[in-house]
């Protein structure tokens, strides 16, 4: 009688381990590595102060790299274009730091769109832009590839990559915008990243 119970117990453990989602598996694997990944774009990093963020954006603006976004709520950056790229496929990035109560940057909110987007340009939709954004993010932040997840937050399909403590989630919000959220998982899962 002991062996059938042991076999059942082993099968339960194996099935539970096998049911672990790709996301949870990636999260646990990266947390165990304990390799900090705090870099963002333009030399910014999670852990910078809000004042540091504004100072760096001001420098980038003075250099002509960025400008202000709509209603001065974001920073605007035109992604460089390849020599053979059509001007209608230019991509605009709007970004702003995500800060905690202590005004420390714990991530970044981004929105990508084709500069020439309009409802009648069906080839310039967010659905077509999303793979390009993913490729760009993998170049900017090398490491793991994106995996597909069902996001409870956005109630849509999203694509996530985790490298160390840095999580990058990308999804299309509507026909125009691809939203990217970068967050510090040390803040979200302190019990895993200690």
Structural class: alpha+beta
- Please summarize the sheet with the most strands: 8 strands, antiparallel
Count of individual beta strands: 8
The residue-averaged pLDDT reads: 89
Q: Count of DSSP helices?
A: 5
Read across the widest sheet, the strand sequence of neighbours is 1-2-3-4-8-7-6-5
Shape: globular
Which blocks of ≥5 consecutive residues have pLDDT under 50?
11-18
Which strand-content bin applies to the residues? 25-35%
Spatial gap, N to C terminus: 43 Å
Q: Give the C-alpha Rg.
A: 20 Å
Give the fraction of residues assigned to helices.
25-40%
**H/E order of the elements?**
HHHEEEEHEEEEH
Structure in words:
With about 190 residues, the protein is α+β, with helices and mostly antiparallel strands. Helix content is about 30%, strand content about 25%. It has 5 helices and 8 strands; from the N terminus they run αααββββαββββα. The chain has helices spanning about 1-20, 20-35, 50-60, 125-140, 185-190; strands at about 65-70, 75-80, 90-100, 105-115, 145-150, 155-165, 165-170, 180-185. Strands 1-2-3-4-8-7-6-5 form an 8-stranded antiparallel sheet. It is globular, with a radius of gyration of 20 Å. It starts with a helix and ends in a 6-residue tail after the last helix.
């Amino acid at each position: 009688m002991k062996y059938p119970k042991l076999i059942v117990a082993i099968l339960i453990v194996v099935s539970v381990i096998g049911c672990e989602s790709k996301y949870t598996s990636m999260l646990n694997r990266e947390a165990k590595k304990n390799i900090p990944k705090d870099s963002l774009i333009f030399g910014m990093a999670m852990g910078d102060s809000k004042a540091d963020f504004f100072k760096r954006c001001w420098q980038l603006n003075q250099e002509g790299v960025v400008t202000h976004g709509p209603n001065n709520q974001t920073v605007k950056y035109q992604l460089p274009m390849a020599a053979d790229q059509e001007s209608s496929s230019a991509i605009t990035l709007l970004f702003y730091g995500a800060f905690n109560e202590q005004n420390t940057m714990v991530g970044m909110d981004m929105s990508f769109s084709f500069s020439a987007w309009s409802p009648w340009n069906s080839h310039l939709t967010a659905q077509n832009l999303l793979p390009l954004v993913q490729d760009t993010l993998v170049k900017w932040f090398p490491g793991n590839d994106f995996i597909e997840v069902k996001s409870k937050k956005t109630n849509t399909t999203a694509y996530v990559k985790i490298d160390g403590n840095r999580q990058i989630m990308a999804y299309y919000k509507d026909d125009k915008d691809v939203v990217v959220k970068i967050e510090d998982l040390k803040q979200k899962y302190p019990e895993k990243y200690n």
